[in-house]
TrEMBL record:
<dbReference type="Pfam" id="PF14580">
    <property type="entry name" value="LRR_9"/>
</dbReference>
<dbReference type="GO" id="GO:0005634">
    <property type="term" value="C:nucleus"/>
</dbReference>
<dbReference type="InterPro" id="IPR025875">
    <property type="entry name" value="Leu-rich_rpt_4"/>
</dbReference>
<feature type="domain" description="U2A'/phosphoprotein 32 family A C-terminal">
    <location>
        <begin position="301"/>
        <end position="319"/>
    </location>
</feature>
<dbReference type="InterPro" id="IPR003591">
    <property type="entry name" value="Leu-rich_rpt_typical-subtyp"/>
</dbReference>
<dbReference type="InterPro" id="IPR003603">
    <property type="entry name" value="U2A'_phosphoprotein32A_C"/>
</dbReference>
<dbReference type="InterPro" id="IPR001611">
    <property type="entry name" value="Leu-rich_rpt"/>
</dbReference>
<comment type="similarity">
    <text>Belongs to the SDS22 family.</text>
</comment>
<keyword id="KW-0539">Nucleus</keyword>
<keyword id="KW-0677">Repeat</keyword>
<dbReference type="Pfam" id="PF12799">
    <property type="entry name" value="LRR_4"/>
</dbReference>
<dbReference type="InterPro" id="IPR032675">
    <property type="entry name" value="LRR_dom_sf"/>
</dbReference>
<dbReference type="InterPro" id="IPR050576">
    <property type="entry name" value="Cilia_flagella_integrity"/>
</dbReference>
<keyword id="KW-0433">Leucine-rich repeat</keyword>
<protein>
    <recommendedName>
        <fullName>U2A'/phosphoprotein 32 family A C-terminal domain-containing protein</fullName>
    </recommendedName>
</protein>
Amino acid sequence: MTEHNQPKPPINNDEEQSVPGVEIDELDISNMEGEEIDLEHCRIKCINKLERFPNVRRLCLRNNLLKKLENFEPVCQTLEELDLYDNQITKIENLECLSKLIILDLSFNRIKHIENLNNLHCVKKLFLVNNRISKVENLSSMRDLEMLELGSNKIRKLENLEELTKLTQLYCGKNKISALENLDTLTNLTLLSVQGNRVTKMCGLAKLVNLEQLYLSENGITEIEGLETLSKLQILDLACNFISQIQNMSHLQNLEEFWFNDNKISDWGQIEKLSVLKKLHTVYMERNPIYFLNSDRTRHDPNYRRKVLLALPNLQQLDANPTGVNM
C-alpha cells in the first residue's frame, strides 16, 4: 500500500474549531519566487493571495484548516502539483483553470463526490484517500491518469474506469467492494490493490496481463483462481482470507513474494506445491493451522520454520525473518 493508506487519528472537532486560522499573506515566507512552496501545518483558513508565488510548480497546503477550493487563477500557468492532504474540504470545485496540473492530492478531507475534474487532462496521479466517496465517477476525461488512490472510502463497486487505459496503479483498499469487475480495459495495470474489502472470488482479472503486483488480503476469498493469464505476477498477497488449498499457481514462474499468512492451510503437502516457483524468495505463512500444534491455536509448532524450509529450501525470507539463504 502507499503511504496514503496509513491510519490517521480521529479529529477532535472542538479543538479543531478553537484553533484560529490565518491568511496566506500573513505568513512570513522566505522564498516566494521559488518553484516549491510548502505551507504545511500553518493554520491557513482559505486559499487566496496566490499571486505572491509567480513561479510555483509545487504547492503544499497539507494539514491546514481549508474548507473550500478557490482562487487558483494566479498560479494556473505554472502549478503542476497541488497537495491538500488533511484539510476540511467538502467539495471538489474551482480547479478548472489548473490545466497543467500533474499531481493532485485531496486525501483525508470530507469529500463525498468525485466531480469537476473534466479540465484536468494532464493529471497523472490522483489521491482521494480517506474521504466519504461512495461511487467511482466522473473520471473519464482524465485519460493520462497513471495512478489512482481511492483507499479508505465507502465505495461498493469498481466502475466507470473504462477510459483510464493508461492507468498502471489502482489502489482501492479499505472500501466495501464485493467483486473484481469492469477492469478489462485497464491492460496497462501493473499494480492492483483491493485489500480489506468484501471480495469472495478471484475473477475479472484475465485481461490484466501486465499485472506484477496483486494485493487481495483481508477479503472473503476461499479459492485461488483466475490467475491463468497473469504470468508477469511478482507479488501476490492473499493474506487474511479463508483459503485451504494452494492451487492454480504453478504457471506463475515470475512470482517472487507470496503473502499467505492467516489462511486455512492445514496440510503440509500444500506448501510443497510452491517448490515449482523457482523465483520465489519470500513467503508469509504464519498463523495458518500448520503454524500451530493444537486446534485452539494456543501453541506455536516449534518445528514450523524448519518444515517450511525443508519444503522450500531456497527461501530468503519466511514471514518477517530472513533465512540466511543468498541466491
